[in-house]
Amino acid sequence: MTHWPTFDxxxxxxxxxxxxxxxxxxxxxxxxxxxxxxxxxFKCENLQKAGAFKARGAxxxxxxxxxxxxxxxxxxxxxxxxxxxxxxxxGRRGIPCTVVMxxxxxxxxxxxxxxxxxRVVECEPSTTSREAVFAEVVAETGAEFVHPYNxxxxxxxxATCSRELMEQAPGLDxxxxxxxxxxxxxxxxxxxxxxxxxxxxxxxxxEQADDAARSFRAGHIIADDAxxxxxxxxxxxxxxxxxxxxxxxxxxxxTASEQEIIDAMKLIWKRMKIVMEPSSAVPLATILxxxxxxxxxxxxxxxxxxxxxxxxxxxx
Length: 316
Known about the structure:
By secondary structure, this protein is an alpha/beta fold. It folds into 2 domains: about 5-50 and about 150-305, Rossmann fold (3-Layer(aba) Sandwich), CATH 3.40.50; about 55-145, Rossmann fold. Helices cover about 45% and strands about 15% of the residues. It has a 6-stranded mixed sheet with strand order 1-2-10-7-8-9, with helices on both faces. It has a 4-stranded parallel sheet with strand order 5-4-3-6, sandwiched between helices.
């Protein structure tokens, strides 16, 4: 039987990771509010350590290890941000980290993993290849597997983000975050179901990688092996732990086209002067696409990361 984390676990995680993360700012834009027809409060995890919210979950997992576990190091598979953040956290604890990454992952993300002292092992850009290569790495190193999102230590770390958001922007009617594997959305569910059960939770997904939306409608996990979308952080499927939170607590999963995602990303760069990656633009894209759902409400929008390849901007 799974021991699901409690809000006490979230508080303990927040205390554990506090020395290693930023309490990221919440920003607003009157111009974007005018376009959206609601009040948006952007939780800027693009300004987080290592450039993404995943520093929270990775730090909670790494600093929660016993000394015996830590000595063998940690390993994961990741299209970028989780690998970067796990390398960051492992470096802070002084332990080795190996990351299996698709060869097609942005070079900036591969460089970031190496920059924090991690080792990159490349695989083909499919879930099947990723898992096969990863199995070889664990057999070779004996490292502790820290899954990018289907790990309750990681989900509990991600839950600290919405805890901060609720303190920084009280009175929200809804919170929306991008969904790939569902780690951030699950953490949001964990926090809000405990401290603000009346706040609606939405997930935002690319139309071209909409397996979470299809899963949500079908009532069971539907996994795509290798979807193609500009939102490279949202290509992975839900797993059993994240499905537990999504199926029990999410109000709806909304989707946006590739062009809508690019337009929303450009809008935030232009009006808010902050760098964020395509995956982070999906929530705003879905809000602008569905004005009736959010009309007149106060909505928390989690900008999940800012690790974008500046040589390959999607509008170039």
